[in-house]
Design brief:
By secondary structure, the chain is mainly beta. The chain has one helix at residues 61-97; strands at residues 12-14, 20-25, 30-36, 42-47, 51-56, 105-111, 119-124, 137-141, 147-149, 154-160, 166-167, 177-182, 188-199, 205-206, 211-215, 219-220, 225-231, 241-248, 251-254, 260-262.
Length: 266
């Protein structure tokens, strides 16, 4: 038996004369499957030469409808899984490509902005195409409530921690909680997406390694994380950012997306 056409979901089954059947797509009134069957016989269905399924059934409208539905579900699930896998693979490739960022590198050696002995993965690095296009910024994967520590000493410049909103849409961009520390050279350390009421130091001087607050999921986010960047000016021009080196258990590093880093214990 050969497949005469394909419909996303066959709605109607006609059987005439006895021993043969035709499946119609109600939307177009065109035959989509055709074949022959008799009670107790083994019948084979073929879909565009790619799938062959043998089955036995007692010929009736009810059994045929049930069979067609099962075949449709099987084929549809294969398609869905294939499309989903290709979609995820495409996203991973797209976001791994990155965009150009500043060539400026800070000479200061920063601490990782989390607890000594802790490890966190960089889930989006410099120039990441999800939200870091042309931005020298780093996203550390962190559950909500993870302690955030000062990567460098300085003065509290400004903060916000009254938001409890976040999500994967641009409308949430201004809903992020944050703290900005002004460094002695005039640059700014920016810690973003903190939790609601998650800023602990709201004025005065902070020392390197001091607890600043707690990570969260506020603002423009897909998942909970800490966004960290150092800027010479508080705007989003490419060269307002500077790339930063960090002290890790494996040495002084410029961090890369996809890698996990551990902060040395003191």
């Amino acid at each position: 038996m050969a497949l005469l056409g394909y419909a996303a979901f066959p709605k109607k089954v006609n059987a005439a004369p006895p021993g043969t059947f035709t499946i119609f797509d109600v939307r177009h009134s065109l035959p989509r499957f055709a074949g022959a069957a008799s009670p107790g016989r083994c019948v084979q269905l073929q879909r565009k030469g790619r799938y062959r399924i043998n089955f036995d059934f007692t010929y009736s409208h009810h059994s045929l409808r049930k069979l067609v539905f099962k075949l449709h579900v099987k084929f549809s699930m294969k398609k869905f899984i294939l499309v989903f896998v290709l979609f995820i693979a495409g996203l991973l490739v797209y976001f791994s490509l990155g965009s150009a960022v500043t060539k400026n590198i800070d000479t200061y050696i920063y601490d990782l902005p989390f607890a000594p002995g802790a490890k966190h993965k960089v889930v989006q690095g410099y120039g990441g195409l999800f939200s870091h296009k042309h931005k020298a910024a780093l996203d550390f994967d962190m559950p909500v409530g993870t302690p955030v520590f000062a990567a460098r000493e300085g003065e509290v410049y400004t903060f916000k921690d009254d938001s409890d909103e976040g999500g994967p849409f641009p409308k949430y961009e201004k809903k992020a909680n944050y703290i900005i520390i002004k460094h002695s050279d005039g640059s700014f350390g920016c810690y973003w997406h903190l939790k609601h009421n998650g800023v602990l130091v709201k004025h005065g001087r902070v020392i390197k390694g001091q607890l600043l607050g707690y990570s969260g999921r506020t603002g423009f986010v897909l998942w909970p994380h800490l966004h960290f960047a150092v800027k010479r000016q508080l705007n989003y021009d490419k060269d307002s950012f500077v790339r930063t080196k960090f002290k890790t258990t494996s040495g002084i590093k410029l961090l890369k997306s996809g890698d996990t880093y551990e902060k040395p214990s003191k």
